[in-house]
Amino acid sequence: MVTRWDGVVLPQPAPPRAPRSWRPRRLLATKSARAWPHGQAMLERAAGMGIEIVELAGDRLALGLPEDPRRAYAEAKATLAVVVAPPSKRRLQPIAPSADWRLDLAEGCPAHCSYCYLAGSLSGPPITRAYANLEEIFEAATRYLGQGTVTSRSRGRAQEGTTYEASCYTDPLALEPLTGSLSAAIAWFGRWDADAQLRFTTKFADVEPLLGLAHRGRTRMRASVNPQAFARFEGGTAPVALRLAALRRMAMAGYPVGLTIAPIIAAPGWEQAYGALIDEAGAQLRDVPGLDLTVELITHRYTAGSKAVLDSWYPGSKLDMTDQNRVTKRTKFGGEKQVYDLATMRALRSFFEARLANALPAARILYWT
Questions:
Q1: 232: which residues sit within 8 A by CB, 6+ positions away?
Q2: Per-residue model confidence as pLDDT tens for the chain (369 residues)
Q3: Beta-bridge partners for 136
């Protein structure tokens, strides 16, 4: 049903086959978001899927979450809000070492990863917000062309041009059946006659809507992967084998692609687990003609704040967030995070560089952190 802010219940067509990506239980739409064509399009998609839609009278999100923290978390994770990105979100921020700038199409993620870095980055209940005013977001991107420092002025990555990361605070492919925002962004960058590249990373696999887009090689899709042995830490995501198959399909469609191996977890048996993962990726990609492949290597880390949030969200998780093999590292903003100690980091880095060189010799490692 579609429930308007004044309580009127509107009819809707029968829902089609369930989508292969995320399907929330309800969608909240603010008044300002409904004034944008892209916002209306999201509501129409949700209605076609049989999702409950609540049209709010204003722009304040009335979440109506239960008092019990666990139930509140579950309700928030099952809710999508369609809102307008405020001016602060259109003042782009650098996002080293990935890209020159963050280009947020949404905020929040429907997955249930027990290491989720968003737990320490976003405040409040983990509701996902999708932005309706894409035209203003894309216009903002043009003002930052050539001004970044990660790729725009980097000798090692200058060939990428000015880079815009669309998955800093979300997984845009997970939301795509409802939002269509990722397709819109890929098409926009394909039309933009500039030395620029859109980037996104994902733990999902439904790339069908993206394969036929006129991307002109200006969007790099990266599959965020971890070994099957660690799948229990990535609830609600696509199986890794499907992510790698999706990466191959994107590469065959002419997209530059990449692997985001993250977070690298130094649990017992990690050498065998990650070796098998890299070999599987090599088997999927080694015969792709003209393969343009990058790799990003990100080790597991956490802050005291993110650990507290994750412990409350996933109290039964077996993910090791103790002091074993850890040291404290101070961030550039004055905070502290727990990272692996020097001996562990050296062992991890040596292994990955050697194994990747053997299984994926064409791959370029962009960074290790």
A1: 318
A2: 444 333 444 443 333 333 356 899 999 999 999 999 999 999 999 999 999 999 999 999 877 777 787 888 889 999 999 999 999 999 999 999 999 999 999 999 999 999 998 777 777 788 999 999 999 999 999 999 999 999 998 888 999 999 999 999 999 999 999 999 999 999 999 999 999 999 999 999 999 999 999 999 999 999 999 999 999 999 999 999 999 999 999 999 999 999 999 999 999 999 999 999 999 999 999 999 999 999 999 999 998 888 888 888 888 899 999 888 999 998 777 788 999 999 999 999 999 999 999 999 999 999 999
A3: none
Least Cα distance to 195 among 156, 144, 257 occurs for 144
* Dihedral, CA of residue 157, residue 161, residue 167 and residue 171, to nearest 10: -100
Please identify which residue in the block is written with the tokens 């048996």.
269
By three-state DSSP, how is residue 181 classified? helix
Residue spans of beta strands (DSSP E) within 271-324: 293-299
SS3 label, residue 260: strand
Backbone angles phi, psi at 234, to 5 degrees: -125, 60
The dihedral built from the CA positions of residue 184, 190, 194 and 197, taken in this order, carries a sign that is positive
CA pseudo-torsion sign 100, 105, 109, 110: negative
pTM value is 0.91
What is the C-alpha separation between 282 and 143, in angstroms, rounded? Answer: 38
Q: Measured between alpha carbons, how far is 164 from 158 in angstroms, rounded to an integer?
A: 13
Determine which helix (DSSP H) or strand (DSSP E) holds 223, and give its type and residue range. Answer: strand 219-225
The β-bridge partners of 365 are 295
φ and ψ at residue 328, rounded to 5 degrees:
-90, 130
From the list 294, 158, 159, the residue with the least C-alpha distance to 224 is 294
Joined together, the tokens standing for residue 259 give 């692997």
- Cα 204 from Cα 237, distance rounded (Å): 6
